[in-house]
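Hey, quick one: can you model this chain's 3D structure?
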Amino acid sequence: ALFGLMFATLLGFVLAKLFLKPIKDEITTLDNFIKDSTHELNTPITAILMSIETLKDIDPKKKKRIELSGKRIASLYGNMSYMLLHDKQSELKQEVELKVLIEERMDYFADLAQSKGLHVSLDLSEKSLHVSEESMIKLIDNLLSNAIKYNKIDGTIEVILNAEFLSVKDSGIGIQESKIKEITKRYKRANSDKGGFGIGLDIVSTICKSNGFRLEISSKEGEGSTFSIFF
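Sure thing. Here's the predicted structure for all 231 residues.
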């Protein structure tokens, strides 16, 4: 009986490997395709954004819509690239001046904020961290992007940086209390009507954990949210 059980177990293991191999091969092929495609997207996206700057004899409003759309695609590409291609083991860490970086990223998102009539206030102190600049760009970009995306027309965004923390506060739609703990999980969204893939806050959470930062979220439905990163 024991021999029969061992034989049946071994047979089941072998058959399982045989049946699962084609599925595993398909998953590997799909994974490689997605990574290769993501990598190849960088060139056309960069070309589009550079070409927009040279457009002439075009309605300024149309040009602005094209530019905003291009930046949204670039932001999505950035998240996909970070998730699929970023090697956290070999990331280069250096001294990064957060005040300068935040000002640069706010300039990048200025047109998106202006398109919703948002009023942005910056209260930034000098703060240097030994981190990956690429990771901090992704963290800041996702916080600013969400503050714009989920805000109200003519709303406000307040960004504060001091020695202890970075916070981004918006006057947007807010988050249900029951969902606050869930939204940093991949593909979770606070509001399904706004679209998106729900990966932004997952990336923020991952970067915080890998650098020993603490992420705190406070929100009230209909009034807005505050995302704070404690160093």
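One thing worth noting: The mean pLDDT is 84.
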